[in-house]
Amino acid sequence: MKGNINWQVQKLYHESGIKQIGQSKHEVKESIRKSINGQSRAATWHAMGKGLGIYSIRTADAYRDVWRQLGTYVKETFQVKDLEKLTGEHVEAFLKTKIQKNIAHSTLSNYAAALEKLESALNGYAKVHGTGNTYAFAENIVSARSMAKESLEKFTGSRAYERPEEIVKSLRSQDHRLVARIQLESGARVNECNHLTQEALRGLTKDPVTGETKGVLYVEKGKGGKSGEKYLSQETYQELKEKIRTTAEGRFCFEYRNYIRDLKKATDRTHQKYHASHGLRWNFAQRRFRESQEHGSCYTQALLHVSQELFHERGDITEHYLK
User: Fold this and answer.
1) What percentage of the chain carries pLDDT values higher than 90?
2) Which end of the chain is more exposed for a tag (fewer CB within 10 A), N or C?
3) Which segments in the chain show pLDDT lower than 70?
4) Taking phi first (over 0 means left), then psi (-120 to 50 degrees means alpha), and beta for anything else, what does residue 130 get?
5) Alpha-carbon Rg of the chain, whole angstroms?
6) What 3-state class would DSSP assign to 215?
C-alpha cells in the first residue's frame, strides 16, 4: 500500500468494512451469538471480536491513533513502510516497547484491543481488494499481554472524584456543566448525554429509591443496546428541557473533545486527580448505593438496583465501583 502512514490508516479504515458507524453493535452481537450457539464462552468471545466492526466515532479515533503509532514504529525500527506488510512479530515488538515504558495496564489493554481490530481491518481490506494476504496477530498479542500481566500494575483504587460538585461548578461552559450534572445525578455514560431530543424527556415521577420527585431521562440505546430510565433532579431536568426547546435543531448536543478538555482543566483547578468523565459515574454509583441501603435495601438488593441503573447485567459488577 502506497502513501504515508496516516493515508494508509485512513484507507484501511474506510475500505476494509471495519467502519460501522451508525450501525447497531447490539444487533450484530446477537447475530454472531446465534450463528455460534453452543460453543464455549471463550470461543464465543473470540468470534465476537473477529466479527465486530467499529461502531463509534470516539473508538475509531482512538484505534486509528494506535494504528498510526504502530505504523510509525515499524517504519523507524524495521524500515517497513507498508501496513500490508505488518506481521505479528511487529505488533508484539511494538506492544513490548509500550510495556517497557511502564504504561498503565489498562492502557496496554486498549492498545491490544486496537491492534486486534487492525488485524480484522487488514484481513477485510485483503478480501475486498483480492490481495490474498492473511493476518494473524492473536498469539503475539497474547504474548505481550502475558508480559504486561507480570510487569504492569493494575489499577485497584477508586476513580470517584473527592469533590465532584466543585468540578461541575468549575467547568467553564454552561453546556458542559449540564452534561456533568446529568452524569453525576444519573450515572449516564457521556455518549448517553449527547444528541438528546424532546422524546428523551419522560416527565416527572417518584424516584424508586428515595421517593423524591425527579425528572425522567429515557436512554433509547445505551452500551450493549440497553434502554432504560435515568433520574435527574428537577433543576437539571428543567434546564435540559429548556436547552432542547430553544435550540434550532431541537436537540441538546455538545462536542465530546471540548467537554473532556474542560473537565480536565476543572479537575486541575480544583486540585483533584483526573479520572475522565467516567469518574462521575463512579460518584453516582457510590451515592446511589448508600441511598438504596438507607432506604431499606439489603447489600445484595442495593448492588442489583445500582447495577440496573448503570445498565449492567449483574449486581456484582457494582462492587467494582464501591472501592
Assistant:
1) 65
2) C
3) 24-51, 153-156, 221-225, 313-316
4) left
5) 22
6) strand
Strand pairing report for 228-232 and 213-219: antiparallel
CA distances from 150 to 105, 145, 178, 231 (A): 10, 9, 42, 42
The pLDDT of residue 151: 72
Cell 524500515 belongs to 79
| C-alpha torsion 161→167→173→177, nearest 10 | 70
Q: Are 84 and 131 in contact (CB under 8 A)?
A: yes
Closest CA to 187 of 312, 25, 316, 59: 312
d(CA 306, CA 3) in angstroms, rounded, equals 50
Read off the C-alpha cell for 157.
483504587
User: Can you list the domains of the chain with their CATH numbers?
Assistant: 5-19+54-151 (1.10.150), 164-278 (1.10.443.10)
